[in-house]
Amino acid sequence: MLIEALFHETRVPYACPENLHSLRVRLRAGKGEIARCLVLHADRYELLDSCFQQTEAEWMASDQRFDYFEALLECTAKRLQYVFLLEGKKGERVYFGESGVSKERNRAGVFQYAYIHESALFVTPEWARDAVVYQIFPDRFANGDKENDPPRTEDWSKDARPGRDSFYGGDLEGVIHSLPYLRKLGVNALYFTPIFASPSNHKYDTADYLRIDPQFGNLDTFKRLIREAHRHGMRIILDAVFNHSGDRFFAFRDVLEKGADSQYRDWFFIEQFPVVQTPQPNYETFAVNVPVMPKLRTENREVKEYLFQVVRYWTEMGIDGWRLDVANEVDHAFWRDFRSFVKMLNPEALIIGEVWHNAVKWLEGDQFDSVMNYLFRDCVYRFFAEQTSDASEFDAELTTARISYPDQALQVAWNLLDSHDTERFLTSCGEKEERFRLAVLFQMTYVGTPLIYYGDEIGMTGETDPDCRRPMLWDKEEKNQALFSYYQRLIRIRRSCAPLRRGSFRTWLADPGSPVYAFVRSWQGENAGIVLNNSDSWQNVSLPLDTWAKRNWTDLLTGEKGQASGNRMELILSPYQGMVLV
Ligand code: ARE
Ligand code: CA
């Protein structure tokens, strides 16, 4: 047994309390090394070996290098000591504990999870598990009020190609008018990129955090939007841009005017006085030299209090959550207090960070509920769009992304194909709609929350920012109606099939060199099996029955029924066909 590959630690994601009396523990081992994994566990104060319970850890997934096993340990006392007992493929047995690996139980020592505190439990909002989120970029979604259009508003047409400074006149009134459309699509949560006052079209350079941008409407419009959206069964999530303000934010204006004498000088990271914006800003900004976005010193108590007052104002108005911009560059202490504060105001509020890389540091239960899942997008991009990975590589990459996070976060991670910061996924697929459709099917059936970028559902295309932000197509002739119906159908399937929303995940088929990928989601004894043919040729597929555990199946997409013979399920899939079997 390759003992160098063994890994466990008593923290997320290797040890995650499920509730006060159970701890989910995970073990990493070399690929194909372990035949059986047991966990021996007891109250920390137990001295007698004979009083240790045994729980079998099950294989949960494999990635490129490792196998992962998982067990749920019951602990009445909330305190735990445990040690893994591993059996290798050749029958050899070793213990693995805090002191190391040994044939002798005592030498291996034990891992200790000292106490499960109520405050340390990771609870994410229940509603988020049933959510399908729709992302709206307000200037480009719908223009419901021509009166508030900015000067130099450009033509809203299918040929529009936005530049960095284009305005199209979209607003909140337009969103209110479109709620029936969104309801028809089937989504039940709306995420808005920023809507507070700012000079740009994207509004990430906030001038006034307490005011709706007049191009989008006013406070009254926003309150009506919340009311109407809620009446349509839709939640509202706003963008929290706290890493930086805009340069027209009152505090930054004051620093520009008064320099070192400004009482707000420590709200930012000023390198030198007087403060200049050109030719290069002499203060920290978002990214590299973006003068209109001075970085906020969120560690400063006054800044934090100011922003928390902003958070209180909008949260109390009735919104259902926050998406945190550049969440990875704001200090952890800020986010910890932010979580307590938001959940105090509204325990059901959802908190989603924008992090493009592994975000486990923020997902231990004390900061975000989850993240925009760009790791998911990377895997999906390589498999469906580029087609540079086979089923086995796709599966391994997904596993690496999945096992990085605790289950609570994973279940509500925003799985996106694209966003206002990336090229449109249909464009990534070379506008080959069948590939795009298969990726959407995957998005709607994988673990986590589907996040739909406005217009994807009707076949909009576009290169990266700013081209991916074209005005929404509303003309019947211009929309891909068939694609819209397909989205509707998939959303309906997701909403009617609990395993797709809450179920565990098991790889079903992922052979090297093969374009066929299959997996099973299970929830309370119910299974949903997803089979995807990511190729332009017919595929004969033979699936083992043990993961599926029954003989009959119905494809929710076509209504086709079938039966397995022997101990395999044989299927024939047409090019780019996907199936959702129950
Ligand atoms: C403009 C230009 C961009 C340029 C950028 C930086 O259009 O081409 O890359 O400036 O100089 C908003 C606007 C953007 C605007 C930007 C600055 O929407 O149009 O872009 O302001 O004026 C990183 C961050 C991530 C950030 C992306 C854009 O980590 O937080 O960059 N995303 C949020 C929002 C944006 C918003 C801002 C932040 C600023 O969603 O819309 O931009 O408030 C890799 C890295 C990521 C990196 C990603 C994209 O994968 O791992 O860290 O994200 O690439 O570059
Ligand atoms: Ca308008």
UniProtKB/TrEMBL annotation:
<dbReference type="GO" id="GO:0004553">
    <property type="term" value="F:hydrolase activity, hydrolyzing O-glycosyl compounds"/>
</dbReference>
<dbReference type="InterPro" id="IPR013783">
    <property type="entry name" value="Ig-like_fold"/>
</dbReference>
<dbReference type="InterPro" id="IPR006047">
    <property type="entry name" value="GH13_cat_dom"/>
</dbReference>
<comment type="similarity">
    <text>Belongs to the glycosyl hydrolase 13 family.</text>
</comment>
<dbReference type="InterPro" id="IPR045857">
    <property type="entry name" value="O16G_dom_2"/>
</dbReference>
<protein>
    <submittedName>
        <fullName>Alpha-glycosidase</fullName>
    </submittedName>
</protein>
<dbReference type="GO" id="GO:0005975">
    <property type="term" value="P:carbohydrate metabolic process"/>
</dbReference>
<dbReference type="InterPro" id="IPR014756">
    <property type="entry name" value="Ig_E-set"/>
</dbReference>
<keyword id="KW-0326">Glycosidase</keyword>
<dbReference type="Pfam" id="PF16657">
    <property type="entry name" value="Malt_amylase_C"/>
</dbReference>
<dbReference type="Pfam" id="PF00128">
    <property type="entry name" value="Alpha-amylase"/>
</dbReference>
<dbReference type="InterPro" id="IPR013780">
    <property type="entry name" value="Glyco_hydro_b"/>
</dbReference>
<dbReference type="InterPro" id="IPR032091">
    <property type="entry name" value="Malt_amylase-like_C"/>
</dbReference>
<dbReference type="InterPro" id="IPR004185">
    <property type="entry name" value="Glyco_hydro_13_lg-like_dom"/>
</dbReference>
<dbReference type="InterPro" id="IPR017853">
    <property type="entry name" value="GH"/>
</dbReference>
<feature type="domain" description="Glycosyl hydrolase family 13 catalytic">
    <location>
        <begin position="135"/>
        <end position="494"/>
    </location>
</feature>
<keyword id="KW-0378">Hydrolase</keyword>
<dbReference type="Pfam" id="PF02903">
    <property type="entry name" value="Alpha-amylase_N"/>
</dbReference>
